[in-house]
Give the backbone structure.
Amino acid sequence: MTTPHAAVDRVIAALAPDPEPEAIADAFGAIESVGALDRDAWEHWLEALTDATPLPLGGGDATALLERTLRKLHVAMLGPQGFAELPDGLDFARWAAWHRELASDATGRSRLVLMLARDGSSPALDALLAIWRGEAPTDERGTDEAFATLMQRSSGDLPRLFPDLFDIAATPAFAAAVLDLANFLFRSGTVDVHPAAERLPRLRQLLERLTVELEKIENDPSSAGTPAEVQTKIAASLSLGVALCDCFALTRYEPAIATLRHAMSLGHRRLRCEAAWGLARLGDESGVTELVMLAEEPVARLRVIAYSDELGVGDRIPPELRTDEAMAESEMAIWLAEPGRMGLAPAELTCVDRRRLAWPGYDDPIECRLWKYVYDFGRGRYENLGITGPRPLAVTVDLIGLPFDEVYALFAGLQAEHEEILEQDVRDLAPGHAPEIARLERRLKDRGLDEVVPLRFGSFFGERVLVARAKFGGRSGIAVADSIEVLWRPDKNRQRPLGPDECHAIYRGRKLLGAFNEGFVASDEES
């Protein structure tokens, strides 16, 4: 088995200008054979790679190798050991150079940024600014992840990012993230003066322009382009509009009252809610009236109740909108409406099952609810199931028609986190695992499955587990096997069938829920 030190030495040699194909192949093989990195190995890789990697990379295979190496480092940083701080003394100028060398759509770019954001030290934040000055990000999801990571780390050095971040903000999505971070710093008391305090007049003008643009789109959607272009423009404008309203509410910026009233007249519920909150904070009664009306809307309800309680007008919210089920309905609607999920609230939301279950990660049993949600996109209905009680969650695979026990098991397995629940792609495993994988393959074949293709391998509280694609009776599907049992799920005639991640989650969730909930049953096999 290749040692971590030897593996990174091979990677460094292969990243030299004009590397030999054999060196590239050897480096890829070394990465795969070294297995997971512990903290010492992870730090050695970071230090050696940062110190020794020559530039330019040479493109092609060398760039792909750097991508694969950054993936290995990022996975290790997010692993069970919970690495956070980067080693001291890293040359972040090298990281900025990597960022420039990698293609604009390369995942390695976002991994570099996320590792710096997770560290949160002054040198790491300075490196982030250097990277973003060179090229502000255009990937909205990557931007959101980076700024969410910065806020989660809540480093005391975050104020050093301002005012530079305002000057870098070149897209609505990036500007919204920057303003959200500024609002967070002021709301949390990290800074005494809002980072945007000197820019409030310009920000008020920006909100007015956004409101006018959204008003035009509401009146004539075709004027903004294709449906996809319209949706993109609306999402970006709403995120920035919400951040602007929050900024004016926090700073109690009275010159924004007329603009907030204009924003509150639009049809977008999230923006109406934030504008109403801003007006109410500024003493405008129309904001309070609008908040009470918006409590009827599930996607706005939780936020409206929190704002109303903070304002001291919570008694104006009808009691039936404060029940546990009404609050859970709101959680599900909000989760679905988030950008990157469905992006808007469902047309219909119905609780189809409710159970009190001992749930992974919770000390006491919790009230779990399954929700059927429906979207009408004009060309047909889209429907699926989600869960609240634990963290709200829905998936893209089709759950309609599955037994509810199966659905609960799926969500429990997806949400279960424990140091003794591990999983890896078989392509990333060291060769030493081959005999265990072969043993579980034989178990599947003994149960009548054939054409077995291993996909994932891991352990569940010491029990080795294999996830594989296979066939049974000529039907393709996913099988999960340990030394005792086999779970089999055929693809069936679904447009979005269960995949390896979902089937492995059902396996985990069935065991966890079955162990702590009397009478919980989810079958091992499906015909």
Notes: The two ends are 41 Å apart (CA to CA). Residues 227-251 form the longest helix (25 residues). The chain has a mean pLDDT of 87. The beta strands are 348-357, 366-376, 381-388, 393-394, 421-425, 450-460, 463-472, 475-481, 486-490.
